[in-house]
Write a structure and sequence with these properties.
By secondary structure, the protein is mostly helical. The chain contains eight helices and no strands. Helix 1 runs antiparallel to helix 2 (about 40-70) and helix 1 packs antiparallel against helix 5 (about 120-140). The two termini are about 25 Å apart.
Length: about 220
């Protein structure tokens, strides 16, 4: 029975890891589409978004069944609840990837203003978000609390870039700089906001998983 429970537990964790990989790919593709204004890539992101939703439904059902069947307590319950929360966060990040792709699909612009991209540090923000997401996946896979803690400093940079970008985009709107209409600037503000929210959700995942890992360490210390 114990072995079967471990198999079930490992399968759920593997499914969450697969969802991680899909969401990372979605953010990568959405970012590529955004920076190149490639509507074809944007379309792929939108098409694959349903797979992210399917993953969430599947994993949520698996966790609910696990809890109902095995009635886990203490550390095991904490683990399942952390996976449930992480799955919800990943689904939201998938939504943000789709929103970025929709911006690319719906705008008539053929390319973003290169100067604006550089000044707002859009590429740097995207790189930071992806670095956070990939770091969180490794921390999750390896159950590495120390690595998960590094997420928080990375999120501070994302918040800083978001604040900076708001001022720059407002300046572009006021001065009506060519190729940067007020509508485009507002849409880009929304992109930056979604990237910032992505960072927030990754931070949530780190906090949730660290809480589980710290409790696990404490349990082993008590046994020792």
């Amino acid at each position: 029975m114990v072995k079967f429970i471990e198999i079930e537990r490992s399968q759920i964790k593997e499914d969450v890891n697969d969802m991680f990989a899909l969401v990372i790919k979605q953010i990568e593709q959405a970012s590529t589409a955004l920076l190149s204004m490639d509507k074809g890539i944007a379309s792929q992101v939108i098409v694959f978004e349903h797979k992210v939703n399917s993953f969430e439904l599947k994993i949520t059902k698996e966790i609910e069944d696990y809890i109902a069947l095995y009635n886990p307590v203490a550390i095991d319950l904490r683990f399942m609840l952390s996976l449930l929360q992480m799955t919800m966060d990943l689904e939201r990040i998938g939504d943000y990837a789709r929103s970025m792709a929709r911006f690319v699909k719906e705008t008539e612009m053929k390319e973003l203003n290169p100067e604006l991209v550089e000044k707002t540090q859009l590429k740097k923000m995207i790189q930071q978000v992806l670095a956070m997401l990939k770091t969180m996946q490794v921390a999750f896979t390896e159950e590495n609390a120390e690595l998960a803690h590094t997420i928080f400093d990375k999120d501070d940079l994302i918040d800083h870039i978001r604040t900076l970008s708001t001022d720059i985009l407002a300046d572009y709107m006021v001065n009506q700089i060519p190729d940067t209409s007020a509508k485009i600037c507002l849409q880009l503000q929304d992109v930056f906001r979604k990237l910032e929210r992505t960072g927030d959700h990754i931070t949530n995942m780190a906090e949730e998983f660290i809480f589980y890992l710290d409790a696990k360490v404490l349990k082993h210390q008590k046994k020792g």
